[in-house]
Amino acid sequence: MSRKGVFCLLFVSFVSLRGMAQDTSAVVLDTVIFSDLSFKKFTDLAKFENKPYIIMFGASWCAPCHRIKNEIFTHPKIAQIVNENYLAYWVDIESFDGLEVNNTFRVSQLPTLLFFDPKGNPIDKAIGYFDGYYLFKKFRAHIPPSQRNVEWDHNIEGE
Question: Residue 30 pLDDT more than 70?
Answer without folding.
Answer: yes
